[in-house]
Amino acid sequence: MIALRLVPAILLSLLLVLPASAASRIKDVTSLQSARQNQLIGYGLVIGLQGSGDSAGRSPFTEQSVRAMLENLGIATEGERARVNNVAAVIVTADLPPFSSVGSRIDVSVSSMGDATSLRGGTLVMTPLSAADGQIYAVAQGSVIVSGFTAAGDAQTLTQGVTTAGRVPGGAIIEREIPMRFSDNEHLVFQLRNPDFSTAVSIADAINRHTGKQYGGMLAQADDSATVRVSRPKHVTLPRFVAEIERLTVETDTPARVVINERSGTIVMGHDVRVSKVAVSHGTLTIRVTEMPVISQPLPFSGGVTAVEPLTDIQAMTEGGQVAILNGPNLQTLVAGLNSIGVRPDGIISILQGIKSAGALQAELVLQ
């Protein structure tokens, strides 16, 4: 894939000399179905904030959580209101990696759910993390790292990044393992990250070439565009067999696709994008309106009044408008033809949309 974003034609030519496709390892283009992650979630409190926490009036659940935490610690609040401007209620999320063992640590993300203005300098107190089955699999605690910051004065406030979300690296300890008997599987299912029939067949062929030499049989077959099923050979452990398959290389294939982000002016084209022969003309109409009012001053002792007479100057200019013939047998020729028109990326976006409407763009057009 090649990205175009305010890039001169010379640089585009340098980018296009890259090879069309390169061999990729199977482990980089697929994932093992039985080795999946599991999402964890929990509700907790971040304490130690410098007055940037939740307000009692707008976040009553924070005050309730503080009282419940103090009661669990043996401190009786006796119905008094708790000041929570140094505390923030947060949602804690994490991904439990496959084959995780008890005692290992994982990173967690912390996001404010009240009206706190910043989590910088806060500490996440012990928060249980549960999965979709309601069981607790990890417990999180630690200092919250926030990349954004806020500086405020009497007349101005400067905010950079997000101050109401952060991370706790290694902040959760796994307390329960997900039951998984990986070594007992008779089949392995590899899922393609980018489903494609050609790539799935190439992966199956590469695995069969390896197993044919190593184990004397073809053990892989492509079930569809997203999965490749591999039978387990005898007299070899499953982790070793998976390691052998992951190191195999294949030539991946992708559909012809043009991705356009109109907000940022970014254009990404796949190498297989083709354009049938078509003539394109692109011109920009600019209308400039200038107001130049004229002050009319009466003669002395004439009894007149000063008046303002409007004067408007309107100019219309057309830039570009040249006609270019585009014929893209390959991506380099297509980009060179677009650059020859001399338009900006927003103009190229309009041209590509027009070529697609004319039926000359032999690729899928994706607008973001």
List the helices and strands and how they pair.
Blueprint: E1 2-4, H1 9-15, E2 23-25, H2 26-29, E3 30-32, E4 38-47, H3 60-72, E5 88-96, E6 105-112, E7 123-130, E8 136-143, E9 149-152, E10 157-160, E11 165-174, E12 187-192, H4 197-214, E13 220-222, E14 227-231, H5 238-246, E15 249-251, E16 257-261, E17 266-269, E18 274-291, E19 294-296, E20 307-309, E21 312-328, H6 331-341, H7 345-357, E22 361-362, E23 364-367
Parallel strand pairs: 16-23
Antiparallel strand pairs: 1-17, 2-15, 3-12, 4-5, 4-7, 5-6, 6-11, 7-8, 8-11, 9-10, 12-14, 13-14, 16-17, 18-21, 18-22, 19-20
Describe this structure in words.
This is Flagellar P-ring protein. The basal body constitutes a major portion of the flagellar organelle and consists of four rings (L,P,S, and M) mounted on a central rod. It is found in: Bacterial flagellum basal body. Belongs to the FlgI family. Assembles around the rod to form the L-ring and probably protects the motor/basal body from shearing forces during rotation. With 368 residues, the chain is of the alpha+beta class. The chain contains 7 helices and 23 strands. It folds into 3 domains: 121 residues, no CATH class; 84 residues, Gyrase A, domain 2; 137 residues, no CATH class. A 6-stranded antiparallel barrel has the order 4-5-6-11-8-7. It has a 4-stranded mixed sheet with strand order 1-17-16-23, with helices on one face. The two termini are 16 Å apart. The longest helix is centred in the middle third of the chain and has 18 residues. The N terminus is likely disordered. The radius of gyration is 32 Å and the shape is flat. A hairpin with an 8-residue loop joins β5 and β6.
